[in-house]
Design goal:
There is one protein chain. With 168 residues, the chain is α+β, with helices and mostly antiparallel strands. Helices cover 29% and strands 26% of the residues. The protein contains five helices and seven strands, in the order βααβββαβαβαβ. The chain has helices at 15-25, 34-43, 104-118, 133-137, 148-154; strands spanning 6-9, 49-53, 56-66, 87-95, 123-128, 142-143, 162-167. The protein has a seven-stranded mixed sheet, sandwiched between helices. The longest helix is centred in the middle third of the chain and has 15 residues, at 104-118. The model has no long low-confidence stretch (mean pLDDT 92).
């Protein structure tokens, strides 16, 4: 690859590439349907991004304003925005195996954090899967000890899922 990938807001036409990247990257969690992914994009297009090499999508990040007490369930259609969000939930980040070590993931996370601040959110949350907790800690995310309610919400993400927060 020549140079850093570029980052732009995701559009509906990117979802075919998002599904392909998802299939290459996730081995321990259930894939999300294109309907579920599209619903998240529809709810908050301003917080969903793709990393591109030229015109080719090589990574993506889906996020939406949400409540920090409970993540949205995996592979669930979100047909409306959260009524009282207190954070931005980073739902998914994946980079094609062919584009790893290009800075695509870092660029997507930085865009996410910058956009979250621009929209007035000082807090972000995510659910780390497939042993990615250390990756997220490098960006300042910290594990949260889950309540029983949160444990039930995390069940759709798999047994090893770790809920994490960023900010106050």
């Amino acid at each position: 690859m020549a140079g850093l990938p570029s980052v732009r807001r995701m559009v509906l036409q990117d979802l075919a590439s998002v599904v392909e990247i998802q299939a290459m990257c996730y081995t321990e969690v259930v894939f999300e349907s294109i309907e579920s992914l599209a619903s998240k994009l529809a709810v908050s297009p301003e917080t969903c991004f793709v990393a591109c090499e030229g015109e080719k999508v090589v990574g993506y990040l889906l996020a939406l304003p949400w409540t920090s007490s409970a993540p949205p369930e995996l592979n669930r259609v979100n047909d409306q925005a959260c009524k009282e969000p207190d954070c931005v939930y980073l739902h998914d980040l994946a980079v094609s195996p062919y584009a790893r070590k290009t800075g695509a993931g870092q660029l997507l996370v930085r865009q996410f954090l910058t956009t979250s601040e621009e929209f007035g959110y000082s807090r972000a949350t995510l659910t780390a899967v497939q042993g990615s907790q250390a990756y997220w800690q490098r960006y300042g995310f910290c594990p949260v000890t889950p309540s029983d309610t949160l444990k039930r919400k995390l069940a759709s993400y798999g047994e090893e899922a770790v809920f994490m927060k960023y900010g106050d």
